[in-house]
Design goal:
- This protein is α+β, with helices and mostly antiparallel strands.
- The protein has a single domain, classed as 2-Layer Sandwich (TATA-Binding Protein), CATH 3.30.310.
- The protein is 43% helix and 28% strand.
- The protein is built from 5 helices and 5 strands; from the N terminus they run βαβαβαββαα.
- Strands 1-5-4-3-2 form a 5-stranded antiparallel beta sheet.
- Strand 4 and strand 5 form a beta hairpin.
- The longest helix is centred in the N-terminal third of the chain and has 14 residues.
- The chain starts with a strand and ends with a helix.
- The model has no long low-confidence stretch (mean pLDDT 97).
């Protein structure tokens, strides 16, 4: 897993990340708010969200090569706050692809995109 510290506050980082995703022509399917779920269970968890996003056309091309990779799609970026710092984390698409016997230009381009999205 790739983990990078973001120099911004959690909210600013999330807002900018969402904008970057949209500007890249990608669709945000959902945002999972783990800290809210923890609160609803009477537990405390510093801000922790997973942004689920992607491009259905690109994902479909990968699934046509190896259907089981559908389990890993859409793409996800974890954003969390820990001890007052904000972090972004994701699994490198080419590494995930290797688990399914895939190695292609699509995955390499996805690697570049993910790195670009989380570099602040």
């Amino acid at each position: 897993m790739i983990i990078k510290e973001c120099p911004k506050s959690f909210d600013s980082c999330q807002s900018e990340l969402e904008q970057r995703i949209k500007n890249a022509g990608l669709f945000i399917f959902t945002i999972i708010d783990h800290s809210k779920a923890a609160e609803e269970s009477s537990l405390h968890l510093d801000p922790t969200k997973v942004i689920v996003f992607g491009n259905p056309k690109v994902g479909t091309l990968l699934m046509l090569e190896k259907r089981e990779i559908a389990y890993e799609l859409p793409l996800r970026i974890l954003i969390y706050s820990l001890q007052g710092k904000t972090y972004l984390a994701y699994k490198k698409p080419s590494d995930v692809g290797k688990e399914y016997g895939l190695s292609n230009d699509i995955l390499r381009k996805m690697d570049e995109l993910m790195e670009k999205l989380i570099t602040f």
